[in-house]
Amino acid sequence: MNTASALWSRPIAGILFPLHERLKGHDSIARLKALESSQWWTAEELDEHRLVRLKALCGYAGRHVPYYRSLFRQMGFDPAAMTGLSDMQWLPLLTKPLIRANELKSELAGPLKRYNTGGSSGEPLIFHMGRERISHDVAAKRRATRWWRVDIGDPEIVVWGSPIELGTQDRLRLVRDKLLRSRLLPAFDMSPARLDSFVREIRAYRPRMIFGYPSALAHLVRHAKASGLRLDDLGVRVAFVTSEMLYDRQRSQISKAFGCPVANGYGGRDAGFIAHECPAGGMHISAEDIIVEIVDAKGRLLPPGQSGEIVVTHLATREFPFIRYRTGDIGTLDDTECECGRGLPLLKTIEGRSTDFVVAADGTVMHGLALVYIVRDLPGIREFKIVQESLERTRVLLVTDEAFDEGSRAIIEQGFMARLGQGVQIVVDRLQHIAPEKSGKFRYVVSHVAAE
Description:
Layout lengths: L2 H21 L4 H11 L4 H22 L1 H10 L20 H6 L11 E4 L9 E4 L1 H16 L9 E5 L2 H4 L4 H10 L1 E5 L5 H14 L3 E4 L1 H13 L11 E4 L6 H11 L3 E7 L3 E6 L5 E3 L4 E6 L12 E7 L7 E13 L11 E8 L3 E3 L5 E3 L1 H8 L4 E10 L2 E8 L5 H15 L4 E6 L14 E3 L5
Parallel strand pairs: 3-4, 3-5, 5-6, 6-7, 16-19, 17-18
Antiparallel strand pairs: 1-2, 7-8, 8-9, 10-11, 11-12, 12-13, 14-15, 16-17
């Protein structure tokens, strides 16, 4: 980045963005300062801090949130009596159906902003956020961004497709994004013609950071390579990816194309900004605000190193509490320390949504990678998507070129039947284009079969 551009970044980060946050009633600037100190706390200091906040959150919910007031009364649960974070395991898990069926909005809530999840794994969830929650998520994200020596005001390209972002591109937002030097490229339209324009725009804009879905960025860089266009001479410092599984092959493609490291992020609109990768490779949980538990199929706590569903408590959600919320994602906690020296706990693995798993005819549950590996390296396959429609039928959608032949089709059919069952029907459909989800995300594996 040239000197003039660097000089412009400082007043944006130091003056313009703080003014923007103040006008919106957010305290993200003060929160960021606190987070950049607390990230160096010991595990014991973090747990003490979180216990105080957890007791305050549960106490508030028990007094002012109808669902939790009734629940705590029925259970005889007294938040003030909690002596450690492990005491929260006696509370039931919060699910999307429970949120839909009960009143989780605080009776004392101020103005709340309505949100919804994209619904890529089922019916969308409608929920609300207050200013405290938004401020804390903004601060946590910005802290993680600064780990990579980039910040608000550095030129940024965002390859995104959420209707929330794209539906609010009114005149005021366009002006704001221009001032903050953030440029949006819509991931829901990635036709060859649009990809040509995206590559030209990225080259002209010379961003310092790239942000987007891993599938979208991998698709973009493959197109650039096929077109003979370089992206590694622009000075991109880091590519942030989130919202989907990041596969090793995608990381390698994106990193090589832009000539920079790839930083994985994990979170969601509902669960919050949960974890982010640091330059030393640790996937740090935003532990000051987020408590992560790993549970088995019956909701029982699992120790570090064992894989299970990720359950999240967001400590800045008083006005619409998320306490022991089932994310539907599968992961593993790590009990080691990161080389970076931060005391924030680590996620060892994030294995994807439970719907990224498939079920064999005999009931065996396996990660979608078991099928992905069969398809992805076959000659002639440019794009693919696997849809398990039922235990008896799985459809494989392919975009191919002239190198694909009947031998490759047979490999797919035989390989899938070897894993799913010899009696399973494998349907291979060759298409001109595979559309992403409505949100702009791309899911390589979609299963409509519920695992027991």
